[in-house]
Design goal:
This protein is an alpha/beta fold and 241 residues long. The chain has nine helices and seven strands; from the N terminus they run ααααβαβαβαβββαβα. A seven-stranded mixed beta sheet has the order 1-7-6-5-2-3-4, sandwiched between helices.
Amino acid sequence: MATSTTPAVAAADIGNLLGQLDASLTDLRLDDDEKHSLAQTLRQAQPPEDGFRQLRNHAFTLARNRLAAQQDPVAVLRWVEAVVRALDVARAPVQATRSNACFSPGEACLNTIVQHFRSARRSVDFCVFTLSDDRIAQEVLAAHARGVALRFITDNDKETDSGSDVTRLRAAGVPTAVDRTDAHMHHKFAIFDGQWLLNGSYNWTRSACSHNEENLVATNDVALVRQFQGAFDQLWGQLVD
């Protein structure tokens, strides 16, 4: 009896999820609440792999239709990116919460950043005041070369500093947004595959590694990752408009 009803239940779940996608496209924006709701519904429904493919294909069909209707291509692209990220989060297996802290001087913080870039498979959003450590920049470029979707936010005060890697990364095709306001974009955090957050005082510089008293926390706490992802998405939207 259970095996005969399972496909019907899955079909109903997929239908509801398709409806969520349709509704979220009304304003050409998948906000943080909608993204979280979609990911939560997906986790609860646990659709088969074919279901995930159907949702992804439907999202791209909706986007193509909007583009054909000559609607804002940037807004459509952002909506598709948000849907794909929600699907990736939902597909990832639920893991026990793990957190650890590391400190400098010393290479513990550097090694943590490097290892997370090397492990990234789908996406990295990183938001740092300054980036001048070539050892990190090399890992960013390596991730970019293997097709990881990157988004980089930094501050204009450090953009052209001696040794800054901002221009180098932008020239390589890494999507980059720069805060050019009078205030500082002083964050130092990164989100890997929508699952891991690195955050702390640690600037991505050689002096932070070699001389400064700094800290870096790595965690896969779902609530924290979601909060920082929301902050990143909001800031990205402000800076690229």
